[in-house]
Amino acid sequence: MMHAFVGWGEQSEPQRHSIRPNPPGIRHMFFRTRFDRAASRHISAPSVLRMLVSVVAILPCAGAVAQMAQPNAAVAPSGVIQKARIQVGGRERTYVVHRPAKLAAHPALLLVFHGSGGSGESVREKTGREFDALADSKGFVVVYPDGYEHSWNNCRKADTQPARQAHIDDVAFARGLIARYRTDAGIDPKKVYAVGFSNGAQFAYRLAIEAGDEVHAVAAISAGVPAPENFDCKAPRHAVSMLIMNGTADPLNPYNGGKSGMGDENNGTVMSSSVSAEYFVRLADIRATPVDSEIQAAQRPGGLSVSRALWREQGKPSVALYTVHGGGHAIPRPTQAGSPGMGAVDTDFDSPQEIWRFFEMAAGD
Question: Which UniProt key words apply to this protein (predicted)?
């Protein structure tokens, strides 16, 4: 779907979403069946009219049944979607923003970063527009930025993505978006969050390390922190709450550490998922041992499961490692389709919902 570009605070033909009406086929089916039966039995016109009135009364229930039969069907957001642009360092950057119909008094801001080859709109779809729905119910702003040539400049020294090779200042892009919505929406500076998938998760790590003064909590899906020999970020000055969600059978990002990339692609080595989590535990100076728990048991023979290690200490940022046992390079979510060669997707686990719960917990840290 094409979007018109709009500038700061401008709005051009915004998309307003509403729940789709009941399929006309349901109405036609009831209408035709009742009418045909009446005609075949030579029932009087008043009787037919009474039947039709009863059908009208039944239709809302039929629509509700149809919706209940599809529990994983995405509910259309009710807010406004815009394609927007912003000037950062002399370069025009673009993004998609969802603003709910009713903002909270001091709303949160959520930045969602796509993987390599993607876009703001594509990660919006990959997450099932669930963050839009959450924004509608919680009253926050969600932004889906577009990477430079569909990529992000992250902390991996050996990364071959265009943004990295062109030395694009994506941290300045993120800071520019935060500044914009601090002015335009009055966001709460203590409720700025970031989510990233794959290459976007690598950039989310960069935000956690270099922009912890403005980003309060971060979630990284399908990515490990670069190993010391592959690490090229500024020294962190602030600790943030961090959620890491990795699959044990990820062919692109090795769960236990090693070379990141598929086939001949080599974006350098990353640390294991557990060591990546411990990196942020040390930054937060958490001394408590993690609490391990099973978040989701396998729902069928051979199915995937999810466990969590959670580090929490009063007055300090929290760190969580979600392990998707048997999971591949994907965003776990109901109805999510996997990509060829990228491993299994856990469709019994709803990661956008779980991530938002973590952010709400982190808001109290």
Answer: Signal
Task: Report in angstroms the alpha-carbon separations of 44 from 28, 52, 246.
Answer: 21, 13, 67
CA distance 172 to 96: 17
- Give me the architecture of the 80-362 domain, per CATH: 3-Layer(aba) Sandwich (3.40)
| Radius of gyration in angstroms for the set of CA atoms belonging to the chain, rounded to a whole number | 24
C-alpha span between 66 and 25 (Å, rounded): 12
Q: What angle do CA 269, 146, 92 make, to 5 degrees?
A: 120
pLDDT per residue, tens digit, the chain (365 aa), is: 333 333 333 333 344 443 333 333 333 332 333 333 333 333 344 443 343 334 333 333 333 333 333 334 455 667 899 999 999 999 999 999 999 999 999 999 999 999 999 999 999 999 999 999 999 999 999 999 999 999 999 999 999 999 999 999 999 999 999 999 999 999 999 999 999 999 999 999 999 999 999 999 999 999 999 999 999 999 999 999 999 999 999 999 999 999 999 888 899 999 999 999 999 999 999 999 999 999 999 988 888 999 999 999 999 999 999 999 999 999 999 987 778 899 999 999 999 999 999 999 998 87
- Burial (CB count <10 Å: 0-12, 13-18, 19+), residue 20: exposed
Of 178, 52, 197, the C-alpha closest to 120 is 197
Residue with tokens 């978006």: 177
Q: Are β-strands 217-221 and 241-247 bridged in parallel, bridged antiparallel, or unpaired? A: parallel
DSSP annotation string for 137-170: HHT-EEEEEPPBTTB---SBTT--SHHHHTT--H
E strands present in 58-185: 80-88, 91-99, 109-113, 141-145
85 alpha-carbon distance from chain centroid: 21
Is 342 within 8 Å of 330 (Cβ atoms)? yes
The domain ranges of the chain are 24-68, 80-362
